[in-house]
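Revision sheet: structure tokens.
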Amino acid sequence: MRALVTGAAGFIGSHLCAHLLACGDTVTGIDSFTDFYDPARKERNLRTLTGSPGFSLHRADLLTADLARLVDGADAVYHLAGQPGVRPSWGAEFPLYTARNVLATQVLLEAVRQRPVGKFVYSSSSSVYGNARTCPTAETALPRPVSPYGITKLAGEHLCELYRKTFGVPAVSLRLFTVYGPRQRPDMAFTRLLHAASSGAPFPLYGDGEQTRDFTYVHDAVTAMREAARSAFTGIANLGGGSPVSMKQAISTVENIVGPVEILPLPAGPGDALHTSADITVATRELGYRPRTTLHQGILAMAQEHPRP
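Predicted:
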């Protein structure tokens, strides 16, 4: 397949590009190297890809790029680019979220609807559910985002569904539940936990630690993304890890692998959901999805690549 991947230099995007190349696909990556975190980390994410003859990179912003040229000839478009993070999405930063998560999705869909594309795979988020009333949560649950970030991701989903139903764009929105693994962003929990365990620095724990997350290993997630592009399925599907655990349990797992973690208790932040748990029935049925990586295996893989202080 000929694949176009937006956000190619990011945490999940770089893993997806590597997986597609390993499967024999040709990959064109797009990334604007925004400064949400150090762009040098994104440069390192691409080190193993840039030497591949099947990979090319375009350093461009989706809002100004020549998308018609980039989309032309693609069998699958994987849209992972966006502004991440729940806590920073409040206040003055919100225009960045609307531009990079909503407007960028719309211009990409406009480019796709004007030429034949086998599949448009949108990377959505469990944040669209907010504090779900039932766990595990199925796709039929009413989305109730509790953060501006979640609102922008849901808006992206609505755009995908609108273009699918109005123009026949073969769109799939995958609601990712807390993806982790090697090269995880520095603001995310497991990267910060591993740093705390290896350096002795305190780990800020927001809330009482009883909040649960359905952690999804990155290779399981990107494998499902490619299967979504190869399948006949369109619509919305959850991608979860299959076994939600509390933050206290997650901390314990890191301590068992690396060493003790000093906890700095802090109040829960606005926009933090109490529990996330994915009903993966749709992804299992339509994509053959089955998460294969346990939390211990995934944290061990992260620890092996995490730099020592």
